[in-house]
Design brief:
It is a single chain. α1 packs parallel to α12 (about 240-250) and α7 crosses α9. α1 links the parallel β1 (about 5-10) and β2. This protein has a single domain, classed as TIM Barrel (Alpha-Beta Barrel). The longest helix is centred in the C-terminal third of the chain and has 18 residues, at about 180-195. The protein is built from twelve helices and eight strands. The chain starts with a strand and ends with a helix. By secondary structure, the protein is α/β, with parallel strands linked by helices. An eight-stranded parallel barrel has the order 1-2-3-4-5-6-7-8, surrounded by five helices. The structure holds 1,3-dihydroxyacetonephosphate.
């Protein structure tokens, strides 16, 4: 069975060392007994060093982005080598905010995924449709295009290391979550694509998180769906208590 995974994407919200320390001092005791769930927090780069106190706990560290080159004249970018040096295990790639605000293409995200895998980082790769696309009945077309583009040329071994986060853009930061049925339908579709592109084993082993306004009050019904293996949480991951409640919701489904 797939091991559930909950990620906390702090985005550009909690970035000072003090603020990260404060949050983690609260979170660590709240979740220390959680054994069967992978817990990942992804603070801004400026708080990663401070957040690395989690290394001795059951919480793993993730970065929110990285570049696909290891070194060189890339002002403002972060090398995967720097992330490895901080003991980071995960990296969020292709978040819709990176795609939409910073113009990241499937091709660029694909290069980043390959590099992350080469360096031993686990990519959490985000895909999802805009509201207009959903309304026009194009959700599946968009998801398929993103999967073909971002996962181009990845072999079975590689794809099985990746975590996919289905994050419908209309549900991110809006308080409007996808219904468990809407989310489960897309998760099943993603598995069917993985089955077509690879095989049944791949389709059944890749973990697929749901992201978009996951809160303590709606987490359980989302995670009860068989194809939803946890969540990538934005707003509700900023406070220890709400994030811990979401982690405990997924634990109940095991
Ligand atoms: P919210 O939980 O704030 O909607 O953000 C979801 C998200 O984008 C996580 O990556």
């Amino acid at each position: 069975m797939r091991r559930p995974i909950i990620g906390g994407n702090w985005k550009m919200n909690r970035g000072s060392p003090e603020s990260a320390r404060e949050m983690l001092q609260e979170l660590i005791p709240l979740v220390k007994k959680v054994k069967k769930v992978d817990i990942v927090i992804a603070p801004p780069f400026t708080a990663l060093q401070e957040a690395s106190v989690v290394k001795v706990t059951n919480i793993k560290l993730g970065a929110q982005n990285m570049y696909f080159e290891e070194k060189g004249a890339y002002t403002g970018e972060i090398s995967p080598i720097f992330l490895k040096a901080l003991g980071i295990d995960y990296v969020i790639l292709g978040h819709s905010e990176r795609r939409n605000i910073f113009g990241e293409s499937d091709e660029l995200i694909n290069k980043k995924i390959k590099k992350a895998l080469e360096m031993g980082l686990i990519p959490i790769v985000c895909i999802g449709e805009h509201l207009e696309e959903r309304k026009a009945g194009k959700t599946e077309i968009i998801i398929e295009k993103q999967i073909n583009g971002t996962f181009a040329d990845l072999n079975k071994k590689e794809i099985m290391k990746i975590v996919i986060a289905y994050e419908p853009i209309w549900a991110i930061g809006t308080g409007e979550t996808a219904t468990p049925e809407q989310a489960a339908e897309v998760h099943q579709f993603i598995r069917s694509l993985l089955n077509d592109k690879y095989d049944e084993k791949v389709a059944q082993s890749v973990r697929i998180q749901y992201g978009g306004s996951v809160k303590p009050h709606n987490a359980l019904e989302l995670f009860q769906k068989a194809d939803i293996d946890g969540g990538l949480v934005g707003g509700a991951s900023l406070e220890a208590e709400s994030f811990a409640e979401i982690i405990k919701a997924v634990e109940k489904t095991i």
